[in-house]
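Sample log: Kynureninase.
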Amino acid sequence: MSQLQTLAHAQALDEKDPLRPYATEFYKKDGITYVDGNSLGLCSKRAEQAVLSVFAMWKQHGIDGWGEGTYPWFTLSERIGQALASLVGAHPDEVIATGSTTSNLHQLLATFYRPEGKRTKIVTDALNFPTDFYVIKSHLRLHHDDGQTHLRVVESQDGHTLCEDDIIAAMDEEVAVVLLSSVLYRSAQRLSLKKLTDAAHARGIIIGFDLCHSIGSIPHTLSADGVDFAVWCTYKHLNGGPGSVAGLYVHRRHHDRMPGLAGWFGSNKEKQFDMSPTFTQGDGAGAFQMGTPHLLSLAPLIGALELFAEVGLEAVREKSLKLTDYFLALLAAFPETQVFTVRTPIAHEQRGGHIYLEHKEAARICKALKQAGVIPDYRAPSGIRIAPVALYNSFTDVYTVVITLRQIMKDKTYERFSNTREVIA
Ligand SMILES: *Cc1c(COP(=O)(O)O)cnc(C)c1O
């Protein structure tokens, strides 16, 4: 056995890991190796405490919780927005915590998609997340007869990754808006936001990104890159909890734009309770809020984001790459696990925080993994996503995943399960 193949090697890597103490901040179950943090991050003790604090404020203050207590609710979305701004490399007034990824996409396409003359098309790519397609087509239907004619979809050459030059080639004088994901949800390919933004702007096109799979795993520089708008969820790598409030970013150069979908929480805060029928737009990204914030789904973020402020995203990214490099090396080290096709780009700058493996028995291999205490993520028809998360996964966790996978392939235990998708996968 080579040194790499030993548990001792994994343990030695853990000894040297500066983020190791943070695993105890999370609820990890004994005997379970959770590598699904790119679908739903684990619960932290700090997130739990923050929810209890907001709950206590409700008990104690009733309506006065809007202005009193530890985290006055009236300004909490802005306060969380500031913490999120530092994670995406934006000015504090460019980010707000609000809505969901889907509702924020609707808000920002309603704001930025203004077909005019020949410039009527929206560009996205064939590998984008379904909700992004549904939102785009909704807006195309609002402006045109159908949701198809003005949609331009950039195809993937290999079915898993995109070629940035193909995307740029689709940007012409007929394009109004480009909407892409920063990291693809399946293959975890990472796109260059700067390169694509420069190309769009050189052609007079507005460009926005969906950061669901990169926020909390990769540092961003949205303002400096000049990105026009962005959205993201907070329940994946940010560990905000199921359905936690999402985020949106709008570059300062667009802060005079009227929100496409205005609501009273987008008002100037001093004016909101004037109760005027005329909207007085709030400052910055806050103007893109709609109704009353979902306080109980915002609360966990107070605690969850504290961890990121303490650790810093550079350290998170550094460990994340080490974990996925180690995973790939181990996978290649055993004959039984060499049967998987790795669809994630190998180059660090093109890789997000998870690894996507393909195998025709993927559905039942995932069921066998779960039964053996490893929680992966299945994507039909043949994908297995493994996301070792820097804040709570160890090198020993990665070792356990590969050794378990090896055993399952060796004994063919997956044959005891049906190779079909569950309702939630
Ligand atoms: C997870 C995810 C979403 C989810 O959107 P919700 O509105 O939170 O349901 C959207 N886009 C991408 C790329 C995702 O990965």
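Observation: The first helix runs from residue 7 to 15.
Observation: The chain has two domains: 3-30+312-416, 49-309.
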